[in-house]
Amino acid sequence: MRRIETGDLWWKNAVFYCADIETFYDWNGDGCGDIRGMTERIEYLADLGITCLWLMPFYPTSRKDDGYDITDFFGVDTRLGTLGDFVELVRTARSNGIRVIVDFVMNHTSDAHPWFKSARRSTDDPYRDYYVWTDTEPPDTSAEVVFPDQEDSLWERDPKTDQWYLHHFYKHQPDLNIANPAVQEEISRTLGFWLQLGVAGFRVDAVPFLFARDGAPGDPGSFDPYEYLGDVRNFITRRLGDAVLLGEVNVEYEDQKTFFGGPDGDGLNMQFDFIGMQRMYLSLARGDAGPIAEALQDRPSLDITSQWANFVRNHDELTLDKLSDTERQEVFDAFGPEPEMQLYGRGLRRRLPAMLGGDERRMRMVYSLAFSLPGTPVLFYGEEIGMAENLDVPGRLSVRTPMQWTAGANGGFSTAAARRLTRPLPDGLYGPEHVNAADQRHDHQSFWWFIRDLIYTYRQQPEIGWSTPEILEQPNTAVLAHVCREPSGWAMVGLHNFGTEGCLVPLQLEDVPTGSVLVDLLDGRGEFPLDERGRVEIQLDPYGYRWLRVLRPDEPPII
């Protein structure tokens, strides 16, 4: 593959950045972030190297689930701005080389949505079949609820008609009946609307729940959910040829392959690697690279158009549900031993810096790993400066505090009085006086500059986004050595030490011509010559990391 061809599937070597408009930057000083504030900060994201901005929900909402309880799929929450503001945001982002994708909640609506308000009036209402109902009392589903601290069933009785409606999440978020062609038409209208306003695609929320009817009567046997997912993909690419679908699919790897669309890759373009993320935290807790190495080896092969999204944390609880009970407890003990640090018995409500006690060596190693793995990196706002959580904020919102721009009042997020802010900022060691973007952008040794350098280096190594992982066996269990190799010959070796002690890492690369060297991409372009058998030894510091590009004798120097 020629380098020029790597732009054909732009998401294969993009850098995604997830932001919540409400907590990013307050332009009008009312204490709530807004779209015009987001627009003001586009140049900041461009300077960081971001190429795709993922916006969390900004639609009209009943405000019971941080915007995921939508009352109108075609509008903008009036606190955040207008559709005109949104169009200007997309235009500004495009002019700075940044695509915009938006959260699309296909699984459910708010119970305040006009569809549901109409549907619950009678069993004959035209919108009744937009949702999933049963007139027989459902079985006990308490073990299946997503939020066990707030719900005890997937079904809720509606007294008006004495029937039960399905809700995989909160009872105020009734599930849509995706098998209904009328609902499918509404989904297409919504997707088409936002594509027409300039978005480059969608992050689809809670994909596995879209098609789970949980034994509801009347489920049409002819409906194939995976075929429908392919129909959605076809629809958006007809409207915009390079539109992308990024799916939240927290299932086992083999099941994820089905959501990609199988061998043809005609389903979701991208999926988050939840298993790899969870195994990475287990490796961190143990100081042993084994768990993450196993996850990488278990990744199924994908169609060339499909891609993994690598992340350190997202906007929800840091879920550990794919670990065993014993493994999960290991991670809890290491990074969230107190009950208030945990959530739902399966996850952590913390950000990485606080979990690691502010140890920047380990932080840098973790992000180096995330960017070096085959796939596309996704950052959650504030990660680039090492923001931490505020455990005084309830539930999952503890990690969704205002962006810390300066050391000044409210961290430069807003000029409003502190009591009017959407959420309180952290204080102490991770408060804005110690952790903020302005100070770090002026300090070339800061974490912000480290992340910026990672992004720019990642963007210059197309083999990372276009390869599958190859694990190089190591005598030291603390070391992960992997190769990103693309068929045309590009190759990069990633080394990461999960241990507390430095070590010498032996490498042997086959199929490398005599006279080749490994060039250190992150540390001054130092060179390590390979012997005639492709062997070399590399020193790694405690929690050390290196990206080593294979430079063959006939290739031009790396500049």
UniProtKB/TrEMBL annotation:
CDD domains: AmyAc_TreS (cd11334). It catalyses: Endohydrolysis of (1->4)-alpha-D-glucosidic linkages in polysaccharides containing three or more (1->4)-alpha-linked D-glucose units. Keywords: Carbohydrate metabolism, Glycosidase, Hydrolase, Isomerase. GO terms for biological process: carbohydrate metabolic process. The keyword Hydrolase applies. GO terms for molecular function: alpha-amylase activity; cation binding; isomerase activity. Residues 18-419 form the Glycosyl hydrolase family 13 catalytic domain. It is an enzyme of class 3 (hydrolase). It comes from the Bacteria. Pfam families: Alpha-amylase, SupH-like_C. Belongs to the glycosyl hydrolase 13 family. This is Alpha-amylase. It comes from Mycolicibacterium iranicum.
